[in-house]
């Protein structure tokens, strides 16, 4: 028998919608602790959305395996940190190197916290 979808998880179709992104305010960084195979570090987010985060990488991670799953601790300004999982989907080398990390399996509450932060940041920019 088919039951209703678990309310605490995000529907796959919902994750595929393009998510609005926001850059943290100057002096109010979003910190991302990332734990992967062979590394553990804390970075400042370049931008964030309910589907993922772009992380500024001040030093190169040449041996970092793209597509690997990572554990995250996300700290939004003025809020308690929360744990999440993600997958590194790209590494971009420009004047500032950064990783793109796609969130995996965020709970509805976690997704709503990030989406609320993004809405707030975007509304303050107008």
- Morphology: globular
Largest sheet: 6 strands, antiparallel, barrel
| CATH fold call | Thrombin, subunit H
Radius of gyration over alpha carbons? 15 Å
Number of separate structural domains: 1
Task: Write down the secondary-structure element order.
Answer: HEEEEEEH
Percent strand:
35-45%
Mean pLDDT: 82
Would you state the CATH class? Mainly Beta
N→C terminal distance:
49 Å
Task: Report what the structure shows.
The protein has 126 residues and is α+β, with helices and mostly antiparallel strands. It has one domain (15-125): predicted glycosyltransferase like domains (Thrombin, subunit H, Beta Barrel). The protein has two helices and six strands, in the order H-E-E-E-E-E-E-H. It has helices at residues 12-15, 108-125; strands spanning 31-36, 39-48, 52-57, 69-75, 82-92, 97-104. Strands 1-2-3-6-5-4 form a six-stranded antiparallel beta barrel. Strand 1 and strand 2 (39-48) form a beta hairpin. The chain is globular.
Give a quick set of tags describing it.
alpha+beta; 2 helices; 38% strand; 6 strands; 126 residues; 6-stranded antiparallel β-barrel; Thrombin, subunit H; 17% helix
Outline:
This protein is α+β, with helices and mostly antiparallel strands and 126 residues long.
